[in-house]
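tmp note - ABC transporter domain-containing protein
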Amino acid sequence: MKTLLSLNNIECRYHDTAVVKDLSFNIRPGMLACLLGQSGCGKTTVLRAIAGFEPLHHGEIVLHDQVVSRPGFTLAPEKRGLGMVFQDYALFPHLDVAGNIGFALSGKSRHEKRRIAEELLETVGLKGYAGRYPHELSGGQQQRIALARALAHRPDLILMDEPFSNLDVDLRERLGLEVRDILKQQGIAAILVTHDQHEAFALGDMVGIMKHGRILQWDTPFNLYHEPADRFVADFIGQGVFLDARLISPNAVETEVGIIEGDRAYPWPPGTAVEVLLRPDDIVPDSDSKLTAEVVNKAFKGATILYTLRLPTGNRVLSLFPSHDDHPLGAQVGISINADHLISFQKTKVLAV
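out:
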């Protein structure tokens, strides 16, 4: 499939310090991608570089087969034809909703701007709101207006910088899914910057995990969860606990909770010290099991309860039980390990000083 956007080994610097280094990825038409990472990892700088607000010190950015950024050259943001949705919505308080949407449509008649605004308001589920002003709207409604404005000139790519971070959790999740549906229906590609993995997984076809200005893994949400490229990605994505273990065959490890066999083969020799990642869904309730653990914490999740369990060794693990399987703190519960998809990492050796 044709590539819409390419970042090729880009580097961005602030005061001679590289904040984005050797970073590359491609976006195809209609793809929804997310840059996910902790504050300061460089994800917003990447978005600003794509938009044309940050110069490159190395590499290039190619949009529609045209180089738009390279060292010494940055095509102006307004000439890139991109849509943008900001964290603070950036709506003009003195313009009504139709005026805010139409602001992006320079050169069109007042009647045409109104027609497009009405059409987009229906698309984002706010039909009849054209005459309202930003202060009359909720946060979620303002974000929909910001999206409608970004869609107004029919861009092939929209950039979104933490667009839902000012909203409460339930609204953020619901609006994220609605935005995904709208973009997919319109066939418009998007890049979302976020620190929220649930948001990234709900919206993104592809997700890039960033750390210290680099992408550690660019992959589907499924693969990031089940096939993490390194320990940081494994620890950053989802919930889980690492237990020390010893490799006894390419696809089996010996742990304090017994031998675990999986469907992945590792190249290290038998006896290698490893760490095994056990996620809450890998540890299942089993009343007939000889392996028991003490309930030290619990969090009701509706359909499930997330238990923190203390193993006989003192180490703690997480486990999801059905919500009707309710146990008090201090109770001993039977568990078994169901971790066919074995995720292990060679343990880093600590050298003696």
